[in-house]
Amino acid sequence: QELFLKMNSVGEGCTELKREYDQCFNRWFAEKFLKGDRSGDPCTEMFKKYQSCVQKAIKEKDIPIDGVEFMGPNKEKPGS
Amino acid sequence: MKSFFSETDIKSSWDHVFSAFWQRYPNPFSTHVLTEDVVYRSVTADRRLITRRLLTKTNRLPRWAERFFPANLSRSVYVLEDSVVDPGSKSLSTYTRNLNHATLMTVTERCVFRESAGHPSWTQLKREAWVTSSVFGFSRAIQEFGLARFKSNQLKAMKGLEYALANLHGDGQQWPLRASVREASEKAREAALAATERAKHLASAAAPQKPQQYV
User: Fold this and answer.
1) What residues of B are in contact with residue A64 (Cβ under 8 Å)?
2) Is the peptide bond before A64 cis (omega within 30 degrees of 0)?
3) pTM for this structure?
4) Distance from CA of B165 to the nearest CA of A (A)
């Protein structure tokens, strides 16, 4: 039964858009990206719609994601 | 500061693990994870996938902490997970931390998933975590609690990933789901109980003595 349950988006109205995008991404990731296939990403339109919805929800809920450094504080790692 | 380090082998190939990484929620061990969203994603010029995911999780404080930090009860925890997938080097690196409740407790985690050098059909996972608290007088108790909860969550996270792998690819052992959920919950409960006792002891040692009430 768990197979058919999916996660919700933080934006209540964005869940459908999120699920559509996730489905597209998961297929592209496994079948194209990981295999080195450089053909176009078929999910860009879906991603735009989803992002437009969820970024609005994030602002409305005051979730502090702006300006957070990607991958955290820069660590010097020799030979990584 | 309390820190944690572990190294383990996941008995699935790196490509299966990386796919499962995006699909591990929901799972029977993740009832505390409420929402999941990709808030940024792009492919770099050198074909690495960069992603930022926002998760909201329930804020389950032990009862002694609820009493001392009532203001922290109301909001869920926002967690940001950054990741880089490099199919060229067959590696996935992640960096995860909470955005709020940070003064009370900050948990930071770095993971590296990599095709196992000794066993190419397996994936090695190296995990490091740090727990800090800035609350004067309580930081040791909070750090103990935080570290214990992290360990318990780490167990659940591995179970969740294995669950996703089993469902996607039929990888790994076939285990009866209910028994494993019960077993994992029991282990998590035991660890949490032990930590609660330790933390309670530290908290009452730190708290100011309450005057006796005579009714």
Assistant:
1) 78, 99-100
2) no
3) 0.77
4) 12
